[in-house]
Structure formats: C-alpha cells, structure tokens
Amino acid sequence: MTILLVEDEEKLVEILKKALGREHYTVDTALDGEAGLEKALKNTYDLIVLDLMLPKRDGLEVCEELRRRGVHTPIVILTARGLPTDRVSGLDLGADDYLTKPFEMDELLARIRAILRRRKTTDSLVLKVGDLVMDTKSHEVTRGGKRLALTPKEYRLLDTLMRHKGEVLSRQLLLSSAWGPDFKETNFQLNVHMKYLRNKVDKDLGKPLINTVRGVGYAIKE
C-alpha cells in the first residue's frame, strides 16, 4: 500500500518514512502544500498523512480542495494545533482522523491500520450510467465492457458528470472540477476536452450518454 506524506519538517519525514517502511508501506513525500496537492491529484494513494502548517498552501486548504475535486483517499491530519476548533475544522473539511503533535508512533500506525481496514469494506464506490461504469478506486472506466483510456482531465470531467447523473452542470462548475478553482482555461478548452471525452464514451458504443445543454453546460443521463 502507498501512503503520501505531506510534511515540511524533514527530520519528522525521515522518522515517519522509516516507521511506515517497517510496516511495509510505500511512502511518497511532499514538503509543502502545493506539491502535496499536485501529487494527490496526479497519483493514486491508499492514504494521505497531511500536516496543517505547511508552506505555500495550508493543510486544511489542501484537504478541502481534494474533497472538492472528488479525491476520496483517506486523510490523517497531523498538527501542532491542539484546539478543538482545529480538529472540528479538519474533520468537517473531509479528514478521516486527526492527531496532535507530539504523538506516539504506535498510535499513528494503529489509526492508519484502522482506516485502511474500514476502507477495504466501504470504499468500493462504482458509478454507473447505463452500461458506462467508473470504478473510483481503480480509476478504471468501461462502457459495454470495453475499457476506455481517459486522460486525467477527461476522467475528472466524467467523474463530476457521473456523480451528478441527470443534472445539468454549468461550464464554470466543470472547468473548476477539472482545472481547479483558479483556472484560467476558457470555454474553448472545455469544449475541446468534452469533444474528446464524448468521442471515447459515446462514439460507436451505443446511445449517446453525454448531452450538451445549449447556453448552460452538459449533462449525462441514460
């Protein structure tokens, strides 16, 4: 199993890497919030250990952005902030657990094991629209049993559409979900990516599922 460790204290990073390695976890690291967010969006991890007080981008902001972008990887927050309001904020933004520094390594490892056990039984979310199937854990997408090769942006667009099956989604929402809240892309880029996505999802594979709603945006429905 692979864990992303987002922590700016390099000595603590080395300690945690050794401890997690002894438990047979593969550990990827990031030393600031921006790098952590980029890795979490680009790669698939089994769990993220996330510090709050990070350079470039605060851990709470990273957690919120990941959840908003549809990343459901379990998150354990580590922080020197011990106030109940900090704990509540982290959990409300989508974190799965919260540990205050200094902490016992055995407790962190036990919490990680507990979260991963729960995930095995609960995190098998599969989205379906007709014969279009998306496994959000493996990121595999098929239609009629045929596997579709999607780019990361195409996957995020389709993920957003399928989570809101039957709803008309605005262009602004789709741009934000695929490129982030500070996107500079235009409707032209969205149209191009949606064209590629529709060619992969609908062309020669049966009844079209993705619909253009003129003047508003897009919808997916059976």
Placed side by side, the strands forming the largest sheet appear as: 2-1-3-4-5
What's the helix count? 8
- Share of residues in strands: 15-25%
Q: How many separate domains make up the residues?
A: 2
- Helicity level: 40-55%
List keywords for this structure.
222 residues; alpha/beta; Rossmann fold; Arc Repressor Mutant, subunit A; four-stranded antiparallel β-sheet; 8 helices; 22% strand; elongated
List the helices and strands and how they pair.
Blueprint: E1 2-6, H1 10-22, E2 26-30, H2 33-42, E3 47-51, H3 59-68, E4 75-79, H4 84-92, E5 97-100, H5 105-122, E6 126-129, E7 132-135, E8 140-143, E9 146-148, H6 152-163, E10 169-170, H7 171-179, H8 187-201, E11 210-213, E12 217-220
Parallel strand pairs: 1-2, 1-3, 3-4, 4-5
Antiparallel strand pairs: 6-7, 7-8, 8-9, 10-12, 11-12
Helix pairs in contact: 2-3, 6-7, 6-8
Task: Describe the overall structure.
It is built from 8 helices and 12 strands. Helix 2 (33-42) packs parallel to helix 3 (59-68) and helix 6 (152-163) packs across helix 8 (187-201). The strands form 3 sheets. The chain has a 5-stranded parallel beta sheet with strand order 2-1-3-4-5, sandwiched between helices. It has 222 residues and is an alpha/beta fold. The chain has 2 domains: 2-122, 3-Layer(aba) Sandwich (Rossmann fold), CATH 3.40.50; 126-220, Winged helix-like DNA-binding domain superfamily/Winged helix DNA-binding domain (Arc Repressor Mutant, subunit A). It starts with a strand and ends with a strand. It is elongated and about 55 Å long.
